[in-house]
Amino acid sequence: MPTSWWSDYSRKSNGYFGCQRSHSPTGHDSFETWAYFEIKHIEGASQYHWYRLNTFIRWNAATRQTVVLAFDIPLAVAPRFLELLATPDPYALQFPFWFYPHLLEEVARQQEAAVWAIRDEVRVVEKQPPSEGRPDPDYRHMHDIARHAIHVSETLDVAVQTIQHMLVRHGALMRPTPDKYGWQKIHSQIQFFESYISSLRCRSSSNEKRMSNEIQLAFNTVAQYDASTSVKIGLATQSDSVTMKSIAFVTLTFLPPTFVSAIFSMSFFDYSADSGWALSDKFWLYWVFAVPTTLLTAIAWYFLRKYSISVSPKDEKQSSSSAFMV
């Protein structure tokens, strides 16, 4: 096996294909290929499993012997691989890529199940009836489905690229050989699975867009409901404003008579039936205290309002800076 197959970056990869010729001192040259595919299966929006198809194949040109090492194969797939290896087609054994159409068939089967599992979850979200009252969509659930859909699309993209690399290498080996029929048959089978998995990629892309559309619809529905609530609050506020204006008008209407009544009710004025109206000579004391107090109140209000206006822009600027830093 090549040293790169054992490397850390190969173990962390999401898919690849490689090949090389191996020379033996006995003269039995062999052709080695290795491929790795990942598939994500979901069980609901919260449960998922990663399936891996990791194979290393050594084909001996002289003996037509094929050694297949399969790692991390799912339990459901292993019996089919064992049956295929136990009873292979003798004619196919003379071609180094004979095993790959069977491997790609399994990849296509697993990827199809993954894509349709995402589609089923998306369909459940699409069929949910509109809620009465304020909408309460499960954003976490929808974003989990969208995340799984993105992962499935990623594995499909990588699978298509891996198959394309496989076709390039197989085409390079196929040109100098005299037996074109067997090579072309295998090449056509690999091309078919490239086309099929590319079609699955289109369906997966549709799942992503449909889920994104549902998330956007949920956001817009909640925003529309909140906007209608804001309109109702605005109308209620407007009604309260009209009421407050009425109260203010009544207050201002009775304010002058109230002031006059307060003035004449003070002890500076005296009325008797015999002498009539009498005004105290100390009435000036009222104006001595009333006028300065009124002026001081007006001046204090003016400077306090001016200070609050000058501080507000600074607070807004600091809030914006803090939000930007966060």
Q: Overview of this structure, please?
A:
The chain has helices spanning 8-11, 78-86, 100-126, 139-174, 180-264, 284-325, and strands at residues 15-22, 30-43, 47-60, 66-71, 269-272, 276-279. It is α+β, with helices and mostly antiparallel strands. The chain has a domain at 3-128 and 135-224. A four-stranded antiparallel beta sheet has the order 1-2-3-4, with helices on one face. It has a two-stranded antiparallel ribbon with strand order 5-6. Helix 3 runs parallel beside helix 5 and helix 4 runs antiparallel to helix 5. The longest helix has 85 residues, at 180-264. It is rod-shaped.
SSE topology sketch:
Elements: H1 8-11, E1 15-22, E2 30-43, E3 47-60, E4 66-71, H2 78-86, H3 100-126, H4 139-174, H5 180-264, E5 269-272, E6 276-279, H6 284-325
Antiparallel strand pairs: 1-2, 2-3, 3-4, 5-6
Helix pairs in contact: 3-4, 3-5, 4-5
Summed up, what is this model?
Helices cover 62% and strands 15% of the residues. By secondary structure, it is of the alpha+beta class.
Number of DSSP helical runs: 6
**Unreliable stretches, pLDDT < 50, 5 or more residues?**
322-326
Q: Widest sheet: strand order?
A: 1-2-3-4
Question: Averaging pLDDT over every residue, what do you get?
Answer: 83
What spatial form do the alpha-carbon principal axes imply? rod-shaped
Helix content: 55-70%
N→C terminal distance: 50 Å
